[in-house]
Fold this protein.
Amino acid sequence: MTTASAFVLANIPSPDRGVWYLGPVPLRAYALCIILGIIVAIWWGDRRWVQRGGTKGAIVDIAVFAVPFGLVGGRLYHVITDNQLYFGEGKDPIRALYIWDGGLGIWGAIALGAVGAWIACRRKGIPLPAVADAIAPGIVVAQAIGRLGNYFNQELYGGPTDLPWGLEIYDRVDPDNPLIKDPLNGVALNDVPVEVVHPTFLYELLWNLGVALLVVWADRRFRLGHGRAFALYVAGYTAGRFWIELMRTDEANHILGLRVNVWTSMLLFAGAIAYFVLARRRGPREAPETLRDPWDRDDPDDASAGESADDGNGAERESGDADAAGAESEPPARAGESDDSGRDEATAGDERKVERGQ
């Protein structure tokens, strides 16, 4: 058995390329994975939102703001923390805009994406923490899908290993000039690996799926609310990112001997745990009627409004309408009663006068 065959049987092979061309149009696996992840997060988030009593389509409307903000935030975080890749002598700053070549920091994506979501929630009159709880498991699944893009890009892996699930790394070259190495856009011309490494992208993918299951289970079991499901997602994700980040061997800036993302993971984990504990004082999950888009609450044509019978919205509205109607009718009724009382007293007085001969 040849060495190459042994590698194929024992390890995980990398794709031979990460981009295909339809004529002049490039189809990049990384971009396709990001798009698929966003679609899954929005679809699942909207389903969870409706199940909690919210208006169908609200998450889609919020995503119109959150997704562009998140993409910009993710790229900004990457460019800031890895600025040496784009700025300095011999570098091309314009490549900082090449998002399709990889490089999105999840921390920046979540932070600036939250700003976009906050703007949309303010416009729709619904609480941001409740939205965050609805979309939390979808976001971490989207991150898992995004890690497949790193697999196709043959990036973000760990050190050498002889474990059976080691990842084979191949040399990729420019198909028009095999003498030029091109890891992102090139093609592997043979299946002989140059090294076998820890597939840290796979470790994080599996960890993220586990976090999604944890959030769904805990949310159903304990009826988390007020942003606690989202905080659990952040804590779970950063706990995994901490140890996985320590395994990675790709270039990264360091602070006090640790990678920047290790420090970020520790700080966000602590913040998420603190929020999760403190938010318990706010009580159980938000009432369903607080999650509906105010513009749709009284719309008789909104089919989803009729489906909220379990939370008592219709009964509360009818009761409120009856009380309002009663309140409006009380003043005339009281006025009528005082008039009748006056007439009765006058009639009784006349009768007394007749009896006394007056």
Notes: The mean pLDDT is 83. The chain has two domains: 3-291, 318-355.
